[in-house]
Amino acid sequence: MRRVSARPDPGAARRGKAPARRRPRARWRTALPLWGGALGALAAVGGGVAWLWHGGWIERGAAAAAVAAVEATADAGFRLREVLVSGRVETSAETLAAALRLRTGEPLLALDPDAIRRRVDALPWVKSAVVERRLPDVLYVEIEEHVALALWQRAGRPMLIARDGAVVAAPDLGRFAGLLLVVGDDAPPAAAELVDMLAREPDLRRRVLAAARVAGRRWNLRLDNGVEVRLPEEDAAAAWSRLAGLEREHRLLERDLTAVDLRLPDRLVVRLTPDAAARRRNPGNNT
């Protein structure tokens, strides 16, 4: 784009012509009332920084110039008036406010979005955060929180884990007592797949109290009646559905069992309780 300057013609008077009048400059103040003064302040700051650079004062006067620049924009209207937050569910307003460390009326351009984001990211429930200055007077904070998945028992105490396997330092674990309890050093990263699989058979899922990770390859489930269900390493979902079908049709889990082994795809192996095993060995002793 070419720039066209409307300058007076110096020969116009000699030719008997009046110099051409300049067209009036467009006025943006009415169209953008909140921005006119601020843009002027920014332009003045930019010119001042250029002068400092060429004059050799930039290193010695950088701090003072930066303070003056921020104050100039603040005087022009760039002050914090509102904080908009989205995505907050588990994180309390008090906890978030303490991490933000904001004061209404402070210069918006003095805020460091990256530093604020790092403080918000460090909060227990926060998975990730985005912090943006939205001129002239708003700070926007978008939070993605962890989703509680299960309780992980380690070293004898439970900890809350999220769907991505992250440990969430939740102070009140009693709220999550209904979640599945998983055991095993490598249980957290594999727990989401297990929870989703169990949910496909909701009636049977309600009976599962805990799940133990075995050799990093498969799961053993503990039911509410003490029965242990041994899932296979491969195609565990099919085995789980097969067990749910047997329970619906034959009430398998109501029998005197201690374990149900589903690791073989073509057969079901059960272990009886000691009393039931004794009755099978000596059927004539039954009364």
Report on this structure:
- This protein is an alpha/beta fold.
- The chain folds into 3 domains: 36-75; 82-145, Ubiquitin-like (UB roll) (Roll); 148-285, Rossmann fold.
- It contains 8 helices and 12 strands.
- The protein has a 9-stranded mixed sheet.
- Mean pLDDT is 80; it is low at 1-54.
Q: Can you give keywords for this protein?
A:
12 strands; 3 domains; alpha/beta; 287 residues; 8 helices; single chain; nine-stranded mixed beta sheet; rod-shaped
Which helices and strands occur, and which strands form pairs?
Elements: H1 36-55, H2 58-75, E1 82-86, H3 93-100, H4 113-121, E2 126-134, E3 138-145, E4 148-154, E5 157-162, E6 167-168, E7 180-183, H5 187-198, H6 202-205, E8 208-214, E9 218-223, E10 228-230, H7 236-250, E11 257-261, E12 269-272, H8 274-281
Parallel strand pairs: 1-3, 4-7, 7-8, 10-11
Antiparallel strand pairs: 2-3, 4-5, 5-6, 8-9, 9-10, 11-12
Helix pairs in contact: 1-2
Short structural description:
This protein has helices at residues 36-55, 58-75, 93-100, 113-121, 187-198, 202-205, 236-250, 274-281; strands at 82-86, 126-134, 138-145, 148-154, 157-162, 167-168, 180-183, 208-214, 218-223, 228-230, 257-261, 269-272.
Biggest sheet record: 9 strands, mixed
Strand content: 15-25%
Annotated CATH topology of the largest domain: Rossmann fold
Structural class estimated from helices and strands: alpha/beta
CATH class of the largest domain: Alpha Beta
Shape: rod-shaped
Number of domains: 3
Tell me the series of helices and strands, N- to C-terminal.
Answer: HHEHHEEEEEEHHEEEHEEH
Show unreliable segments: 1-54
Q: Which strand order do you get reading across the main beta sheet?
A: 6-5-4-7-8-9-10-11-12
Question: What's the N-to-C terminus distance?
Answer: 104 Å
- Taking all residues together, what is the mean pLDDT? 80
- Which architecture name of the largest domain does CATH use? 3-Layer(aba) Sandwich
Rounded to an integer in angstroms, the radius of gyration calculated over CA atoms is 35 Å
Helix content: 25-40%
Classified in CATH, the superfamily of the largest domain is: Cell division protein FtsQ/DivIB
Number of helices: 8
Number of strands: 12
